[in-house]
Write a structure and sequence with these properties.
single chain; alpha/beta; 4 strands; 45% helix
Length: 127
């Protein structure tokens, strides 16, 4: 089977980018994921935006353990990334995302912000 040949960013390997931000921005995550993927990047995003509705399962009893487990998984996603992209419409960054940014920076990962890119694009006269 022949796979299509595509030009990779900077003629090298695709950049791995992990998305971080509030789960309330599901639509913005999808938009950023699509744009970065079309640009030739490997995008790692959130695994879920809300808790699944499982019959006979009480998430309230498991919430603190679940939060710790999901946080550990997301920190691994940050370690795997070449870059971290913050999905922060309007500049909103919550407590969990601030911890993720600090962690990424402690690893020397570049961090980009959706809100800053939108401002830069608006300043260029493009949308």
């Amino acid at each position: 089977m022949d796979l299509p040949q595509t030009r990779l960013p900077d003629e090298g390997q695709p950049k791995v980018i992990t998305l971080c931000g509030s789960t309330r921005f599901e639509a913005e995550f999808a938009e950023v994921n699509q744009r970065l993927t079309l640009d030739g990047h490997v995008v790692i995003s959130l695994g879920m935006f809300s808790l699944p509705d499982l019959q006979d399962y009480d998430w309230t009893a498991d919430r603190s353990d679940l939060k710790v487990r999901l946080s550990a998984v997301h920190f691994q996603k940050i370690r795997m990334a070449d870059e971290v992209y913050i999905v922060d419409p309007g500049g909103y960054v919550g407590e969990s995302t601030r911890r993720e940014i600090a962690y990424a920076e402690s690893l020397g990962k570049p961090v980009r912000y959706l809100s800053r890119e939108r401002v830069a694009r608006a300043g260029d006269g493009s949308s």
